[in-house]
Amino acid sequence: MTPATEMSTVEPHRAEAETSDGDVAGLPQLDVPSAVAPKDARRLSRLFFERLRTLEEGTHAYQYARNTLIEMNLSLVRFAAARFRHRGQPEEDIVQVGTIGLIKAIDRFDLDRGVEFTSFAVPYILGEMKRFFRDTTWAVHVPRALQELRIRLAVAGEELLASLGRSATPQELADHLGIGVEEVIEGQVAANGYTADSLDGASDDGEDDRDGPRLADRLGDCDPTFETIESLHALKPYLARLGTRDRRILEMRFGEELTQSQIGERLGISQMHVSRLLSGCLRRLRTALVED
């Protein structure tokens, strides 16, 4: 016989534990509250809530009633956690966060409202889970509005996948949510910031080889010639303002990589003269770039 069947057919015995002031708790003693069937948990939860509001906070009886309510209703947390099973986070972490929402719901629940505890607790549980994913699991900072839009797009995508039998287009998602296509695309782009791959991880080459190349090994380095090209492009209008001899000196020094002595021999001037001309050219070019 399963624990759930035993709960339905056997009258639970009364708790023998007493509070510090000698009062009997007056509640069923449950050895494994988490094993109570959901149907019995709803019935017993009402009994425990009725007793909880009459107990003094901090007493043994109060703690027993509150802790038992938490354990009996953990199935609500596990049920809600199933909605986030594809988010890439360990299930135990999601359940732990959801349990915080369950505890908040238990502490704030009021029987006089006439609302079932399950209906009251689920929004608290889901709220804590969504806050966890929104605030702590994004790889880069993304505005909250886009984080919430990502969740809406994910839910809409699942609904349309079930009805269409294929992935929805941005236009179909926009029509389903009543928003613009541009907003859908913006949300999809923002979703790329949710996770980030480690550069130390294996590259996705279609092979299951843990000793293969890392992702970082496939990333290109910055080409130093790009900076040279940018510098030459910036200098081009100022080089045109120089005289023919100055441009020729710069070409021989930096293009042909000749020494100052070699340049002097070609031009029929001394190395010191070349040095002064070269320094003057560079100074004028540097001043022109800074001023602009």
Automatic annotation (TrEMBL):
According to the record, the residues making up region (Disordered) are 1-29, 195-217
Where would I find the RNA polymerase sigma-70 domain in this sequence? Answer: 93-106
Q: Per its UniProt record, what NCBIfam families does this chain match?
A: SigBFG (TIGR02980), sigma70-ECF (TIGR02937)
- Superkingdom: Bacteria
What InterPro entries does its record include?
Answer: RNA_pol_sigma-70_dom (IPR014284), RNA_pol_sigma-B/F/G (IPR014322), RNA_pol_sigma70 (IPR000943), RNA_pol_sigma70_r2 (IPR007627), RNA_pol_sigma70_r3 (IPR007624), RNA_pol_sigma70_r4 (IPR007630), RNA_pol_sigma_r2 (IPR013325), RNA_pol_sigma_r3/r4-like (IPR013324)
Q: Which Pfam families match?
A: Sigma70_r2, Sigma70_r3, Sigma70_r4
Return the protein name.
Answer: SigB/SigF/SigG family RNA polymerase sigma factor
Name the PROSITE patterns on file: SIGMA70_1
